[in-house]
Amino acid sequence: MMHKLPRSFYARDTIEVARDLLGKYLVHVVEGVERIGRIVETEAYIGVHDLASHSSKGITARTKVMFGPPGFAYVYLIYGVHHCMNVVTEKEGHGAAVLLRALESVRNVETRTSGPGLLCKAMAIDLHRNMHDLLSDDLYIADSGEGEPVTIVERPRIGVDYAGEWAARELRFYIKDNPCISKK
DNA sequence: GGCAAGATCTAA
DNA sequence: TAGATCTTGCCT
User: Fold this and answer.
1) What predicted TM-score, i.e. pTM, was given to this entire model?
2) CATH number of A3-175
3) Which residue stretches of chain A have pLDDT < 50?
4) Which of residues 38-67 of A touch strand B (CB under 7 A)?
5) Domain spans of chain A?
6) For residue A2, what pLDDT is reported?
């Protein structure tokens, strides 16, 4: 039994949300087809003081969604090639989000999902899904209701070497021994 | 209005 | 290990 996560789930500490998202299900309905993937890897971008976070640049046309209310999607294009999907967390105005890095295919997901770019490609997520409400009926995250325990591994984030000491912080989380992880 | 750089992926 | 490829943000 799938249960859509409430707004209050996202309105918490970003690291807690990043850890709790592991094992949850991302659902995207495209042209009547329901695509579902189990979240197995995330990264936390915890606020304006986090130099690896886009929000550290302040409020701009691109980052304003990160400063909005929690439970919304923040989608952007990286390297002109790939899309990355984030989930806005904390209270409105905080500027934090959780990046979804890898999924485990559950239903109607054909291509690989090990990495932010591939994840969005497989789930058919693009810039048009930016600022989409995750409490809507066509793009949301749900709990299986089974409360299955997972072993969480903490590692430094990927591709943020420019962020100084923040690059070394262990803000990446994934499910131990899961074969769908993007990188060890 | 122009320019540099980026939370990536694939092929060689 | 380099190239694809385009939006954002800052500079002029």
Assistant:
1) 0.95
2) 3.10.300.10
3) none
4) 43, 45, 52-55, 66
5) 3-175
6) 87
